[in-house]
């Protein structure tokens, strides 16, 4: 137990107080040395990487072959360094997920599944040492004040995992809220537990804001941290206005703990754990990250293309952090809209951020939306309002419809059919919320933009 806590504290202090560099260049030198040392270790320990990098010099790691989720899953058994077999791990993780009464472990290694469609789920493994280091790092980024002050934390998650239960003590209390439980139960527990720090997906924070507005929820957070889903600007605006608090963000997925917001609300990449290479998408600030995590050993993530779209911040953040600032995490590349060009045959990509901002501009009273592209020429849109707008609904819908059509025409696309459908709240825990979603696949020749 002491060892566990010591590891958490060590990484907490390391990140918060000791990792300080004079300038970006000094930081990059430190990072380069860390990456090289890590890769040498991985080369000795992972059969998959050893073969993949055969004949390549470690100092040229920036040009190593790129892998992705598919490649990682196809070679899972030889990629991980802790001797875990994919079939065995999948069986155990699926069983744990359906029963929810234990955290799956194999040889002391925690097994987790990423969310996604059944054929497309990622498997991840983390050693105990990595878990405690992770907990310390997350705390160093999200806890207000000192770790030594007392904190009551409410952590909303899809499934229980000892990843998140690994820190507890008299001053620090974690309570876990399983997303599969009904909302009324969460509200009841929050009203009695009164946590000061709430960590939850934005879809849950949105529902809690609804409950607070209706007077059902009395508890109010001192700090909110959005995790697990993309924080949509409209959700952000709504939740922040209800609780009168800024939302902090942790950008994390099974591939790693990638970024967290600073005191100024800017999302900074965790480049002190992961080296980010940027694959430019639009020749400007938008990019797909290639990750090299130099803190994970059990399941090494090296030159891994993440299926996410990030927009880099163009101005420096007033906090003075040396870590790259991110304007927005736009979501999965799979959710880019593709519309036929007005003249040519090709499909034109439309970024989720543009769609979101168009909807927000045209329907300023909306508190939530969901837009789904079902086919190149077919889009479904639903809007939610806090107050009864039934009398003006037709007007609002046609305003939004026109604004979206104008956007698409401006981008030289053919005008699609935009159908309005009633808004349905997604039950938390059933699936991840994506406000902008594409539900048809395009040929791979288009996916690289
Ligand atoms: Zn900052």
TrEMBL record:
Matches recorded under Gene3D superfamilies: N-terminal domain of ligase-like
Source domain of life: Bacteria
Protein name: Adenylate cyclase
Organism of origin: Paenibacillus baimaensis
